[in-house]
């Protein structure tokens, strides 16, 4: 969950590697362990708090100049962007974050089986062999023969590339400040740069990106469909009223300023089952939430945080983002999702109460 606050993708990979390492360590020391419960807990960040962190799609989009809802924000709230100080760094969000992290730790501890034990050797025996092979490959040295090989593996060349990038980032944040400077573009740039600095080897970094890119094929196909849904919401106009306006008017009739954060949580959680993407879902229903929030007189930052909670919440039911986790740990969805769904049901209480009762 702490890694998820930094970046949702980081949480998936760190969680998976940590769960696998724990499984292997217990196996090698002949200690009992229920491996599926460990893997389930590695998915906690994606289901509880990632959308309140530094990679939060809706808050970052809302802080990016020229984003797709900029005109709607200007029309309703008089500004085109919503600063991060009003969303993920607002005390309302930070307090709820502490509540949900404490809940997550206690919930996954509570549901872990005390007697039944299925170690990695039972659930994913192939991972033992894979781990041994990876350890051997890590020890093998790359043979550098030609000048091209030397350049591709050159740390000096990597440093020469990294220094101007670091200067550019320093200039960017010194000019705009942290809250205004952190948007989708700067976040992506930072993570590309951090990866480059961790490798300090141009060709190895390129190979790592190539190995990982196959996992995003499904996502690349999905997002044009999300754009189509956004188009239906925003551009299907009858007498000057689009579909987003119709739906927001209907929701505003049954919601109150007090109950709206909880209703927003349930709405975004439900839609997330069909559009399992924070940014994709925001593209589809962001205008509805913005207009409903304005009609009810609720600060937009508060509504964005409530939306973000719902988008993360039902990831515990939706296995789409767990695909890398399952692959790295050698488990199946049926092994772990009984635990995550149980936590999702329990999480309804702290999410609802926190969003409604914590002052903004």
Account of the 3D structure:
With 360 residues, the chain is mainly α. The protein has one domain. 73% of the residues lie in helices and 1% in strands. It is built from 21 helices and 2 strands. Strands 1-2 form a two-stranded antiparallel ribbon. The longest helix has 25 residues. The model has no long low-confidence stretch (mean pLDDT 86).
Set down the secondary structure blueprint.
Layout lengths: L1 H5 L1 H21 L6 H7 L2 H5 L8 H6 L7 H8 L13 H21 L8 H4 L2 H14 L7 H6 L2 H22 L1 H4 L2 H16 L2 H12 L3 H19 L1 E2 L2 E2 H12 L5 H15 L3 H19 L3 H14 L9 H7 L3 H25 L3
Antiparallel strand pairs: 1-2
Helix pairs in contact: 2-3, 2-20, 3-21, 6-18, 7-21, 11-13, 15-18, 16-18, 17-18, 17-19, 17-21, 18-19, 19-21
Compact overview of the structure:
The protein has 360 residues and is an all-alpha fold. It has 21 helices and two strands.
Features of this protein?
single chain, 360 residues, mainly alpha, two-stranded antiparallel sheet, globular
Distance between the termini: 23 Å
State the secondary-structure class.
mainly alpha
Mean pLDDT: 86
Dominant shape: globular
Assign a percent range to the helix content. Answer: over 70%
Strand order of the largest sheet: 1-2
Which quaternary structure do these chains form?
A: single chain
DSSP strand count: 2
Give a quick account of the main beta sheet: strands, pairing sense, barrel closure.
Answer: 2 strands, antiparallel
Regions with little confidence, pLDDT below 50 for 5+ residues: none
Number of domains: 1
Number of DSSP helices? 21
SSE string, helix = H, strand = E?
A: HHHHHHHHHHHHHHHEEHHHHHH
- Rg from alpha-carbon coordinates: 22 Å
**Residues in β-strands, percent:** under 5%
């Amino acid at each position: 969950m702490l890694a998820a606050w930094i970046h949702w993708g980081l949480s998936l990979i760190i969680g998976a590697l940590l769960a696998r390492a724990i499984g292997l360590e217990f196996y090698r020391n002949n200690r009992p362990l229920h491996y599926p419960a460990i893997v389930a807990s590695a998915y906690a960040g994606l289901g509880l708090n990632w959308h309140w962190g530094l990679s939060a799609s809706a808050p970052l989009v809302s802080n990016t100049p020229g984003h797709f809802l900029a005109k709607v924000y200007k029309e309703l709230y008089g500004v085109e962007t919503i600063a991060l100080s009003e969303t993920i760094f607002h005390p309302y969000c930070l307090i709820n974050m502490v509540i949900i992290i404490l809940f997550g730790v206690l919930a996954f501890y509570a549901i872990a089986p005390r007697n039944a034990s299925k170690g990695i050797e039972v659930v994913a025996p192939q991972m033992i062999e894979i781990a041994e092979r990876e350890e051997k490959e890590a020890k093998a040295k790359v043979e550098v023969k030609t000048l091209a090989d030397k350049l591709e593996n050159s740390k000096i060349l990597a440093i020469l590339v990294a220094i101007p990038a670091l200067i550019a980032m320093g200039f960017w944040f010194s000019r705009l400040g942290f809250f205004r400077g952190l948007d989708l573009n700067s976040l992506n740039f930072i993570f590309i740069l951090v990866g480059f600095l961790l490798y300090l080897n141009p060709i190895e970094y390129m190979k790592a990106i190539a190995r990982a890119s196959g996992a995003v094929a499904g996502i690349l196909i999905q997002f044009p469909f999300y754009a189509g849904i956004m188009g239906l919401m925003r551009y299907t106009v009858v007498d000057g009223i689009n579909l987003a306006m119709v739906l927001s008017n209907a929701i505003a009739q049954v919601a109150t300023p007090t109950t709206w954060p909880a209703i927003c949580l349930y709405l975004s959680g439900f839609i997330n089952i069909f559009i399992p993407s924070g940014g994709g879902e925001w593209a589809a229903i962001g205008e509805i939430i913005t207009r409903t929030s304005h009609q009810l007189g609720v600060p937009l930052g508060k509504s964005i945080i409530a939306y973000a909670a719902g988008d993360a919440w039902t990831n515990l039911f939706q296995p789409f983002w767990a695909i890398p986790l399952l692959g790295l740990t050698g488990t199946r969805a049926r092994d772990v999702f009984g635990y995550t769904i149980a936590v999702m049901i329990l999480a309804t209480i702290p999410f609802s109460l926190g969003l409604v009762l914590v002052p903004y």
